[in-house]
Design a protein that fits this description.
CATH topology of the largest domain: Rossmann fold
Largest sheet: 7 strands, mixed
Helix content: 25-40%
Number of domains: 2
Number of strands: 15
Oligomer: single chain
Strand order of the largest sheet: 9-8-7-10-11-15-14
Number of helices: 7
Bound molecules: S-adenosylmethionine
CATH superfamily of the largest domain: Vaccinia Virus protein VP39
CATH class of the largest domain: Alpha Beta
Shape: elongated
C-alpha cells in the first residue's frame, strides 16, 4: 500500500497520476497519510514528527483538491489510529457527464438529462456566491425579475427563500427546453408571481416582455447558439430598465459523475483554460460600466458578475 510521509506534493501527484491512469472508472486507490487532525493551525508543508518519523503536514482541503485535479472523488477516509488515516480516491467515470450527453439541443438540459440531476443550490460555493450576488443587487428592491435560461428554476427557488418581500415580486423565466419548463411549472404551481415560458432567447425582442428591474442569466449566455456580445448589448438596451441591475453567472467548473470539478473547459484543451471566461466577463464588465453600471465580479466555481445602475441606486 502507498504510504506518504515526507514526499512533496509534486512527488505525490506524480505517483498518484501514474497509479490512477491504469485504473478503470469507479475503481479506488488507497494510500496512508498523516491524519490531518493530528495537528491544528498548521499550514500545509510544515513538518510533523510522529512516532519518530517526519511527515509533511496537509489538511483535508488539499486532499479534496488533489482528488479533483486527478479526476477522482474523495471517499470517506478510514481512520487507522489517531495519527494515521487511509485516504481513498475513486476514479470518476468521465462518460457520466452532461457535457458528453448530447441529445437534441433543446433537451440537452432537459428534465431527464444528466443536467436535470444537478441541484446547484446544494453546492455551498455556488449558493454562497449567488446569494451574495442577490444581496449586491438589492434583490428586495427589484420588482420585475427576468431569468434567461431558467431551466427548472433553481435560481428562483433561492430568491423565494431569500427575498423578504417575495410575494411582491414578479418573476419571469424563459428557456427553450420544454421539459425543464414543465418541471419548473410543477415546482412553482403554488407560486402565482412566477411565470415560465418555453421560448428562444434569440427571439427575446419579439416576446414583448417589457423592461425589468433585475435580469439574471446563469450558465446560458455563452451557449453556442447565442451570440454573446450582441445579445448582452441587446438585453441591456431592450429588456433592462435604466436604473435596473443584472446578475450574470459564468460556469468555471465541469459536472462529472456526481462531482462539480473546478475550472472551465473549452474545446481543444485537455486542461482547464479560462481565456474565454475572462474575455466574456470583461466584455460584460466594460460594456456595463460604459452604460453607467457599478460592476462586481465574485465567485469561484461560478463567476458572478453583478451590475447595479449608478444613475439611481
Ligand atoms: C447550462 S443551462 C443553465 C440553466 C440554469 N440557469 C442553471 O444555471 O442551472 C443553460 C440553459 O439555457 C437554456 N438555453 C440555451 N440556449 C437557449 C436559447 N437560445 N433560448 C432559450 N433557452 C436557452 C438551456 O435549455 C438550459 O436550460
Amino acid at each position: 500500500m502507498l504510504n506518504f510521509t515526507h514526499q512533496t506534493m509534486a512527488q505525490i501527484t506524480k505517483i498518484l497520476q501514474n497509479s490512477i491512469s491504469v485504473l478503470q472508472p469507479k475503481e479506488t486507490i488507497e494510500f496512508k497519510i498523516l491524519n490531518p487532525d493530528a495537528a491544528s493551525s498548521f499550514y500545509n508543508g510544515n513538518i510533523v514528527t510522529c512516532n519518530g518519523i517526519k511527515y509533511i503536514y496537509r489538511g483535508y482541503k488539499s486532499w479534496v483538491d488533489l482528488a479533483h485535479i486527478l479526476q477522482c472523488r474523495m471517499l470517506t477516509p478510514k481512520i487507522l489510529d489517531e495519527n494515521y488515516i487511509l485516504m481513498r480516491y475513486e476514479k470518476l467515470n468521465q462518460d457520466n457527464s452532461f457535457h458528453k450527453n448530447i441529445t437534441d439541443k433543446e433537451e440537452k438540459y432537459g428534465k431527464d438529462s444528466i443536467f436535470g440531476q444537478i441541484h446547484k443550490n446544494e453546492e455551498a460555493s455556488f449558493l454562497y456566491s449567488y446569494i451574495q450576488a442577490l444581496q449586491n443587487v438589492h434583490v428586495n428592491k427589484r420588482v420585475r425579475i427576468l431569468n434567461l435560461g431558467v431551466n427548472s428554476g433553481d435560481e428562483f427557488e433561492a430568491i423565494k427563500a431569500y427575498a423578504e418581500n417575495f410575494n411582491d415580486l414578479e418573476l419571469v423565466g424563459i428557456d427553450y427546453c420544454e421539459s425543464a419548463i414543465i418541471a419548473a411549472k410543477e415546482k412553482f404551481k403554488n407560486t402565482p408571481n412566477i411565470s415560465l415560458h418555453v421560448a428562444d432567447i434569440n427571439e427575446l425582442n419579439s416576446l414583448n416582455l417589457g423592461k425589468f428591474d433585475l435580469i439574471i442569466s446563469i450558465g446560458t449566455l455563452q451557449s453556442s447558439n447565442l451570440e454573446y456580445n450582441k445579445l448582452l448589448m441587446s438585453i441591456v438596451q431592450n429588456q433592462l430598465k435604466k436604473e435596473g441591475a443584472m446578475i450574470l453567472g459564468f460556469p468555471n467548473c465541469r459536472w462529472i459523475d456526481g462531482e462539480m470539478i473546478y475550472g472551465a473547459r473549452v474545446k481543444n484543451y485537455a486542461f482547464s483554460e479560462m481565456g474565454l471566461l475572462y474575455k466574456d466577463v470583461i466584455f460584460a464588465k466594460k460594456y456595463l460600466q460604459q452604460k453607467k453600471f457599478r460592476v462586481t465580479i465574485t465567485g469561484k466555481d461560478y463567476i458572478f458578475l453583478t451590475a447595479t445602475s449608478i444613475r439611481k441606486d
